[in-house]
Every structure is written in C-alpha cells, then in structure tokens.
Amino acid sequence: MIAPDRPRRSALFLPASNARAIARARTLPADIIILDLEDAVAPEAKEEARAGAIAAVREGGFGAREVAIRVNGLDTRWGAADLAAIATAPVDAVLVPKVSSAGDVARYDAALGAAQMQLWAMIETCGAIARLEAIAAMASSTRLSLWVMGTNDLAKEMRARLLPGRVPFLPLLSLAVCAARAHGLVILDGVCNEFRDSAAFTEEAGQGRLFGFDGKSLIHPDQIAPTNAVFSPGEEELRRARAIIDAFAQPENAGKGAIRVEGTMAELLHLEDARRLLAIAGRL
Description:
This protein is an alpha/beta fold. Helices cover 43% and strands 17% of the residues.
C-alpha cells in the first residue's frame, strides 16, 4: 500500500542507458527517480539499458528516494522481458506506458506475478482519458497505486498544441485528478519541456498544484528545486493546519463535524487534510 504521507513532489526521468546520470541521481533532491527504458532509449540500446537499470537498483545508494523503472509496453518486443527482469529486482515500482483500459492494468499486474512492488501507470492516451474511472477503479484489485500524466504523448494523439497555460488539457487534468482521488491514487503532473525558462516552469508547476496534483514529473535536474518548493506545504498552510487540529482537539468540539476556526468554517475533511499536510512536512 502506498504511503499517503510520503512526499512525491518531484519525479525525475532519466535514461536507463546513461550510467553517469544515474550515478548523479543518487545525490539529487528528487523524491522519485524514474529509470526510463521506453521513450528515452533508442531501440538498439533497449537491452543494454535494461541491464543497466537492474544493475543500478541492485547497487542501491538512492537513500530515501523511491526508484521506479519505466518499461516498454507489453505490445513491444521488449516489454515482456522488461517486466520479467524487473519482477526480481529491488525496485519500488514499475511504471507502465500508454495504459488505455482496465484490461491493460490487469495484464501488467498479472505479468508481475508475485513481485512485491507497486504498479504505476502513464495516463497519456485518448483511450485512457475516456476510461479514467474504470482504470482508477483497478486500484482496489491490483497493485496500481500511482498515475503519471503523459501530456506530450497525449498532445500528439489529440493533435493538440502543448503551449504555456495548457488550455486544451485543463479539463482533462481536472478529470484525471478527480478519478485518482476517488480511488486513492497518487497522481503526478506531466513533464514541462521548458527547463531553461525557470519562470515558465515554475508557473506550470504552480498550476499543477492548484489542480491538486501531488507532484510533477521532470526531465532535467534543474527542475527539481522549484518543483519541491511549489509542492511543499508553506508556513501559512502549516500554521492553519495546526490551528484546525488544535481546534478539533478542544473538549467543547468533541464529536462535531464542523466548527469555526479563525473566523472560517472547518469540517472533518479539513481536519484530515491538515493531518496529511503535517505528516508530509514531517517527512521532508
């Protein structure tokens, strides 16, 4: 079961074929490292990248970071071998691409057999957007625990333009967050292709937090610090959370579902969120 209070602010994609980048990742402040066997690796380098990823996770040294490996799809000539190799490796999660149905989740879950690891899924196809509820519901019967939005692939399939502001994608992002929350999934925003313009990147990260994402997937180490800052609880948020917890703890508020805190209404759902924020802050 995925820990609800574990920080998952920043998830850095790295080509599993780049040993130097993987070595550096052990020192970076990202919450999640994703070793990529799919988009970031050329066909002729797939098998070497797989061996490199397995060797890296066996070597360890990633500290408190979660480590996932993104595999090639089961419909490719590498996918089955990727899953078979990773199923015996000490990795936190397998990230699978281009999931478009509940059946896809079931296939990947079955392919992992008795492996003790999480199943994460990329939401990056029009088919997935049309079936968000059914895919999310698989969390109750499989090891599915986290979604990563794949906005680049989604833009390609939609024939939409992925520009600052992401206007064509705003309703889709909201729907994905709602479906994930309905079934207890962690959900990460898609990558931002702009890593040289820090202001543009920070604005998009802030948009992701506004939408309710738990964190953001990244393509460059320079994106880690601003992402962690955006998705970390601020001092005012933490102060408000403590005030809500303290107010509900007062004897006169015992058993109440809604109370007044600092002039505004707070309900039990706000108490739950306050506890979650403080738990996350305690682990940062």
